[in-house]
Amino acid sequence: MNKVYLLFGLLSSVAIFAPDVRADISLPSEKITFVHTLHTHLFSEVYLSPPSFSERQEIKVAQVCWITDTEDCGGADFVGTDLEGGTPEVVPPGGGGGDNSCIEMGFTKTSCPSGYKPNKYCPLNNKYFAECIPDCPSDYKTCEPPLKGVGEVCGNDLYEDCCNPSCSAEYQYSLDEIPSGYETDGEPCKSCDGDLYKIKEKDCTGYLDCGEMGCEDGASTCQSGNTTLCSECEPCPNLGTESECPPCMVCTYEECSNLYIITADYCDCKIGDILYSDRSCSPDVISDKTPIGVVFDEENRLAIALEESRQYWSFPDYFDVPGLSNITSRSAVTADWQGKNNTRVVLEYCKANGKSCPAFEYVNSYKTEGTIAGDWYLPAFGELNAIRGNKDVLNIALGKIGGTKLEPDWYWSSSEHSGNLAWNLSFRGDYVYGYDKNDYSEYVRPVLAF
Hints:
This protein is α+β, with helices and mostly antiparallel strands. The chain is about 10% helix and about 30% strand.
């Protein structure tokens, strides 16, 4: 056996030990440095010989005591790693001495709680170690509020996965609940009841919305939301002829040509014809149409409403309306057919000045199927006179559709006589007067230009 000489030097004391340590090995004639990190000892370089070594061997350092030791001490096991230039590692001894030294050096733990494992062993005694670290798989997660952990806790609040106890309202579909024509939109919200998704209309890139044409025979389809899209559309029949539907006709819109197809022509309306909500007219009752009036002027396309009411022209006081002509003769007032404009002027004045004009407010609020508030107006004297002249014909039509017949009584017009008087007309005979606006509640019949 060959001798190995170790030279030890103390940091704070002068002492030389040269124990005779033997090993049954052959070593190359190269210098190997052993490193030990004890705070009171310093190991010097070690020269090993003779030059013959073919495999890793263990070197046992003889039991060594230091000047400062007061108790029995044990040796340390050293194992060389790569003897051709590597640095050997210190292997914790299997037990024995070093308890106090380990504790002084900060290696104070001897056990770990469930879910943790030791870390950083004491080099003198592997019974002691410095810390406990989580003994969890590397993919375990920390679940920050409001998330909750899934499965049993491991180590320092680590979980196999996290879930959200309360996903926002837009996340409401599991994969098997997504309706046809829709697909997931982004990553799911990991609800504690399972993954929930936002959805969006399915992407049908390359497919066409064929509208009323429909898909060509044999074409493939793709559902996007509630719309069925086609790989190819039926050719457009190009039946449309009008860019806009004429007001007295009934039309259907042809999407492919972007034109209207005329399906019914009601432009030839006659006095006494029934006016329907689609602005068509007929002398007969049409069961699947809604009547809204009766035509009293075919040239200007004017109709009276099916209902009427008794109202004051103004109340409780009378006033002159700026912008409204004061007409004082019957011949002049008979030529007034500007009921729509008269109604607008009176309403604007009453609203701006806090006045009450009940007759105008009634007709302005009147509406039916196919019309809205503001479409109807109080007829001017000339228009009211035309209604009176066709009273009998109009009442026949009103009777067919259950409308309120015209009364043989006084009706207000929108024509103004003066500050305190407005024109009204009797449907009993040829009587015309300028009545005080606030003295009489007279009949009011709305009129529509269609």
